[in-house]
Design a protein that fits this description.
It is a single chain. By secondary structure, the protein is α/β, with parallel strands linked by helices. Helices cover 60% and strands 13% of the residues. The protein contains eleven helices and four strands, in the order ααααααααββαβαβα. It has helices at 2-17, 21-26, 32-47, 50-54, 58-72, 76-79, 86-102, 105-124, 152-156, 180-195, 207-217, and strands spanning 131-133, 139-147, 167-177, 199-203. The protein has a four-stranded mixed beta sheet with strand order 1-2-3-4. Helix 9 (152-156) links the parallel strand 2 (139-147) and strand 3 (167-177). Helix 7 (86-102) runs antiparallel to helix 8 (105-124).
Length: 218
């Protein structure tokens, strides 16, 4: 994926900066001098021997690129597909498929970035709050997931306002409050419990979430 990103932002030069560092490392050249020498040699070929290099048959260069691609490809990533998260595997396979089908590195990278963003957004939109009753009769909801404008509605619907006991605790030790919409969601939950004549307290906030909540209620 690093090769694809570099190619997207820097074209073939980006891949070369990556297709040459990789070759250096695998050949034992792990120091900065190896990259410097390789870079200077490439500059020398282009500037001083450009006319000679231009006479090299394209078929020969294609063969060299195929060998380099085979040598630098992370073959173990295919073997480990079952071990990595399904979303990451889908992004990798989609990127490779589009690049192979369209012969366009940029299109493959763009599609991979879009899919990765959608997967990330879906993960953020999942929120839950399993509840349990303590021996002292207090109902404790443990919020899991991120609370922001995208999960506000789901969060409000997680609680049993009428069926819960008189004392309720909402534990945010496994969650985070991101914006004003999250603060409004908490305020609406508290208000719904108060309408039922019940007391509810928010606990377990990290310092940043506590600051966000304090600003929202101030």
């Amino acid at each position: 994926m690093a090769n694809c990103v570099a190619g997207f932002f820097g074209g073939m030069a980006g891949c070369a900066v990556i297709g040459q560092s990789v070759i250096n490392v695998r050949s034992g050249g792990t120091g900065r001098l190896s990259s410097l020498v390789a870079g200077l040699f490439l500059i020398f070929l282009i500037i001083a021997l450009g006319d000679i290099v231009a006479q090299i048959p394209m078929a020969a260069l294609v063969g060299v690129m195929i060998v380099v691609a085979i040598g630098t490809f992370e073959w173990h990533s295919i073997r480990d597909l079952r071990k990595i998260p399904a979303g990451d595997a889908a992004v990798m396979l989609l990127t490779i498929a589009i690049v192979v089908y369209t012969h366009d590195l940029a299109k493959g990278v763009i599609a991979g970035v879009i899919l990765a963003a959608l997967i990330f957004g879906w993960k953020l939109s999942v929120i839950s709050a399993p509840g349990s009753i303590r021996p002292d009769g207090v109902k404790v909801y443990t919020v899991k997931g991120q609370l922001f404008f995208g999960t506000m509605t789901s969060f409000i619907g997680l609680f049993d306002y009428a069926g819960d006991p008189e004392r309720v605790r909402i534990d945010f030790s496994h969650s985070h409050i991101w914006d004003q919409s999250a603060v409004e969601a908490i305020a609406r939950v508290v208000h719904k419990y108060q309408q039922q004549g019940k007391s509810v307290y928010v606990i377990g906030l990290n310092p940043e979430s506590q600051e966000t909540l304090d600003k929202g209620f101030s």
